[in-house]
Amino acid sequence: MKKEMITFRLNPEKKKALDAIATSMDRDRAYILNEAVEEYIELHQWYLSHIQKGLDQADKGDFASEEDIEKSFKRWSS
């Protein structure tokens, strides 16, 4: 896979912590950053897809009934 170089600013404390993680894993900083970015992207794609799913259900009028909501509240408050 082709990779591209990017640069960004990072405060010294975060850089130090990042380097400590890389050292403890016997990896370089680039590896740790790539892993972090991959996890960030996966998490936010999952999150956004679930939001979209909820919005799609709302657009279709697919809501919980009052009875379902009351059952849930009773279960949680017990």
What does this protein structure show overall?
The chain has 78 residues and is mostly helical. The protein has one domain (12-77). Helices cover 72% and strands 0% of the residues. It contains three helices and no strands. The chain has helices spanning 12-24, 29-59, 66-77. Helix 1 (12-24) crosses helix 2 (29-59).
Topology of helices and strands:
Elements: H1 12-24, H2 29-59, H3 66-77
Helix pairs in contact: 1-2
Number of DSSP E strands: 0
Structural class: mainly alpha
Silhouette:
elongated
Secondary-structure element sequence? Answer: HHH
Q: How many helices in DSSP terms?
A: 3
Please tag this protein with its features.
78 residues; mainly alpha; 72% helix
